[in-house]
UniProtKB/TrEMBL annotation:
The keyword Membrane applies. It is found in: Cell membrane; Membrane. It comes from Spelaeicoccus albus. It comes from the Bacteria. This is Zinc/manganese transport system permease protein.
Amino acid sequence: MNPLFTFDDYGELLGLVHTSIIAAALLGIVGGLISVFVTTRDMAFAVHGVSELSFAGAAFALLIGGDVVLGSMAGSVLAAVIIGLLGSKARDRNSIIGVLMPFGLGLAILFLALYQGRAANKFGLLTGQIVSISPDQLRLLLVCGTVVLIALAVMWRPLMFASIDADVAAARGVPVRLLSLAFMVVLGLAVALSVQVVGVLLVLALLITPAAAAMRVSASPVWVPVLSMSFALISSVGGILLALASPVAPISPMVTTISFVIYLICRLVGRRRMGKLASWRRATADQAGASVAA
């Protein structure tokens, strides 16, 4: 039985994956920031729905011998635009996603059934294939990642306002519907980028868990994005570095495990903080009551 971890030739292996580490770092930054809005807007289901169409686009590209990254992006953005246009309200959005998900999954299964190439290529779409990323694909990821970061920087404040209270934001002249559509396009790109690291099945680990963990330990509008980005960065890059030492485990389980462990730690820390805060409030209330009675 092969050992789970071995550090023989680790230095040589590290030199072979520097391109993958750069891509993972970029995806960690993008995923961590997007994660804040996905969690605030309660759009975990949308991430799953967009990833299914991303899967279909990547499978179609694989079938026709095209670029899998481009196919994944085309599927993601198409799904995001449809959801953004037809699902402005949460109930409508969930219905649209529920319709799109099985359609996208069915298309993906059909394309993979027609594909006659290596089975490893099919499996890579489900679990990520960042180790095999080419320099051209890395440049494409850098361009798309930069576009996503610039878009987030431009619409951060109004989008956050609309995410917290859409009705009040609309009443104050914020273009809520336009921002929602723009965010869906940005989300589509982020999903397509994340699929390269953890695959379609585990994309939630980079686009939901980081912010969910950060919000357990902080409510600061500054620290939540910083912590979320840091957690996603540690998960994506740490997953690659850890997988290098394992002859049996692929990258995606490492990424999701690190992400899950971070969430558990933050949950424990958050519970302890809330316990101390509750104790402080009770003590303050008792002290105030004693003062009034005296």
